[in-house]
Design goal:
The chain has ten helices and ten strands. Helix 10 links the parallel strand 9 and strand 10. The chain is an alpha/beta fold and 303 residues long. It comes from Enhygromyxa salina.
């Protein structure tokens, strides 16, 4: 059976990640959810030296209480029809070690098809640690990873933004976004960001009208390419849906994607972790990592 990992640190973000996984988002209902709590013994030793490290039985009891709370909140959120809607029952796991190392190792185990994790912790030092954990995991993950930024709504997202760069990896990201849009009967926007040294050069040295015309021409050309890209990728998967729009913008990829997501009220950004250049893993990986801190929306990273 497919296994889906949910690293759990008792934060609101982790609680929502677990709630989404239990509802089958984004990996479906044919999966075993594994609720993983990593006891960071180094943190206890170096930062929380006066605190006793809890035992596995106590932590397991806390995790069970969390699941009871999540099920109760989902029952209220989903209303009177909730009893007829299936929820996955997570398996509880407790491991001691460094969070990113443990999560990396778990993601490489057989049958693991993806993970959901909080993009923020409880605040302060913990929040910074959790943010870095998500970014470190993104660098090495070979399966899709949903980083949860919005801690409030337990409902699966219905407004999606897919960022593409013509690579094979972004094709897979677009296909995932299209599948989720169909499953949730939602809206999908597809974005290509032009991040080229040509742009600031034109703006710096060309006449204002000439610069505007040159950039408009480049934007129109890239938009035409984007429309064709979307049509080709989705042609064998039911075609392009009506509830899909395309846009091309200039700017830094991470900040532009985050800004466009906010403008469109997108709830999740789908992006590939590889890019299209020789340094693709580094460049697009860096964009995905930056989105963890730049975006308010959830980020689904597709390898």
């Amino acid at each position: 059976m497919n296994r889906v990992l949910v690293p759990y640190d008792f934060s609101q973000h982790a609680r929502r990640a677990c709630a989404l996984a239990m509802q089958g988002f984004p990996f479906g209902l044919d999966a075993q959810i594994e609720m993983l709590h990593v006891v960071d013994t180094d943190l206890y030793a170096n930062v929380l030296a006066q605190k006793q490290v809890p035992g596995n039985d106590a932590i397991d009891s806390y995790l069970a209480d969390e699941l009871t709370r999540i099920r109760a909140e989902l029952a209220v959120a989903r209303g009177r029809h909730s009893a007829s809607r299936r929820l996955l029952e997570p398996k509880r796991l407790i491991v001691r070690g460094r969070p990113h190392s443990v999560i990396d190792a778990q993601l490489r185990e057989p049958d693991v098809v993806g993970a959901l994790m909080g993009g923020q912790g409880h605040g302060g030092a913990t929040e910074r640690l959790l943010g870095r954990t998500a970014q470190r995991v993104i660098r090495h993950a070979d399966v899709p990873l949903l980083v949860v930024k919005n801690p409030h709504s337990l409902a699966p997202p219905t407004r999606l933004l897919a960022a593409v760069d013509w690579s094979q990896n972004s094709m897979r990201a677009l296909l995932v976004a299209a599948r989720l849009r169909e499953e949730q009967d939602g809206l999908l926007s597809v974005l290509h960001v032009i991040d080229s040294p040509y742009v600031p050069y034109v703006r710096a040295f060309a006449h204002e009208r000439e610069a505007t015309e040159a950039l408009d021409l480049l934007g129109d050309q890239q938009l035409e390419r984007l429309v064709g890209f979307v049509e080709r990728v989705l042609a064998e998967h039911g075609g392009k849906p009506d509830a899909l729009t395309e846009a091309v913008l200039f700017g830094d990829p991470a900040s532009t994607i985050a800004s466009q997501a906010a403008t469109l009220l997108a709830e999740v950004i789908v992006v590939g972790v590889h890019g299209s250049s020789n340094l693709s893993r580094y460049l697009l990986g860096s964009t995905a990592e930056k989105l963890v801190t730049a975006a308010a929306a959830d980020i689904l990273v597709v390898p």
